Amino acid sequence: MAKIDITSLIDKRPMGRFQLSIVGLCIGVAFIDGYDLVAISYAAPALRSELQLEPTVLGQIFSAALFGAMLGNMICGPLGDVIGRRRVILTNTFLFAAFTLLTAFATEFWSLVVVRFICGFGLGVANVSAYALCAEYSPRRKGATSVMAVTAGYSLGAALGGVIAAYIVPHWGWREVFYLGGGAGLVYAIVLVFSLPESIRFLALRPKQQARLARIVTKIAPEIPGDANVSFVIGEEDERGFKLLQLFTSGRAVMTILFWVMCLMNIMELFFVQQWLPTLIRSYGHDVSSAVSSGAVLQVGALCGALIYSWLLERAENPFWLLALGFASGGATFLLLGQTTTSVALMMLVIFAIGLLVPGIQIALNGIISMRYPTSIRSTGTSWAIGVGRLGSVIGPLIAGVLLSWHFSVSAVLASAAIPASFSTASALLMLWLSTNRRETARVLVQADSGSQSGTDQPALKDAS
Questions:
Q1: Which DSSP string corresponds to 128-162?
Q2: I need a labelling partner for 440 at 20 to 30 A (CA). Which of 218, 276, 300, 326 fits?
Q3: What is the pTM of this model?
């Protein structure tokens, strides 16, 4: 029986229509995710006024969904490596859509906390599983770009949510924002049931699923016969054992920890301002439309950042210098934002720059992370990195709420958001140094081996030492 390595088959071919359709479906998941997760920040000024909520209480409502997303990433994200990514995506898309809809019926603090927590749980799982599925169907050279496109779908959904909310909230109220997001999510979940394929790796590891896998492979490569004389395998070795532990074996421990620090600090920085931005701008006396539109401007900047970083990453020999530059520049923009809040035009320009640099660089980071782990632990590696980052998304809004309750000025609150950027910058620089050092070591060892085979091993070994 002939064996066909699916990983090699995908890597050697350009992205076909079927694979692009999967990327498109995953972008749709991220789009709904972006709208539903950020909708609460757009509704916050009106919601706070109607329910008479204090800043610390509002911060707890923000953090409920983000805490749920963190737990969803860490607990259920790795399930994609065990039970298949399709099942995880479908279940959690239905979950977050239903509880986004229920948010509109919440009437007091605890009901809002519960529905936002469950909504966030589903959002976190569906999104990272979509990243992993998209990377699996993409050639290795395009994997990071494909994941970045999916992540950009989140920013697009969040940006469009801002535009929609800027019109809906003043005319109909904050609840209609959740009616729209939840209803659209449920409809899209039904679309996914009939159109989203299963993980190739999940099917390849189960002999009884070979016929189902053959139908998928023929859509990628029509010339491949899908008959009983062909079996499909995954070229990468499937590492056995506890998936989370494998993030720290085979020389991956330092990389994993540094990825976690970068995600934690950058997402803390992002959500520190993202959840509170409309409320902070409203506190300066600007109208509701300007306050809500600021969130859309942030996400438009993120989309532009995704396009720029996608172009740069495909041409960069080492991506970590790009991450370090982005983290450092993003921190600087927060210092600038605190000085421009009296001018709407200048404020929007700086907010656009923040979107370009902070969520934009996170999109690039997600793409890099997803391609640094083997297929067998890709969901686990991606979901735990983003899950640890979600811890920052929980802490960030809470810190902002506490600072405001202590009567810190808005400028001081915004400036403090730049502090985490120094940690993420340092982590990226360390990764840059480690990856460059390892590459140079590998080059010298190759030269040493070449010298040994040619009978000139003494000079080569001296160079290696």
A1: HHHHHHHHHTS-HHHHHHHHHHHHHHHHHHHHHHH
A2: 326
A3: 0.70
